[in-house]
Amino acid sequence: MDTVKVVLELTREEAAALVQAQRTAYRLRLQAEFWDDRYRNIPHPMRHGSILAHCPDMSANKKLLGALAQGSRIESARGA
What we know:
The chain has about 80 residues and is mainly α. Helices cover about 70% and strands about 0% of the residues.
């Protein structure tokens, strides 16, 4: 798999705003995909994983949210 590494420095305010915007976008997109006909025959507990497997933008968004959460925890632990 070919990968891209992104290093980004944000203020706490920028990071918080980005997290909020990305969570909203993710939630709306998941809702739309969840009820799409192509996932109709997939049991509800398995749909989220199937959606992530078929939608690379949503998978990337989930990774971004995880990285932002981890970065925020590290900065909080440092006392910055």
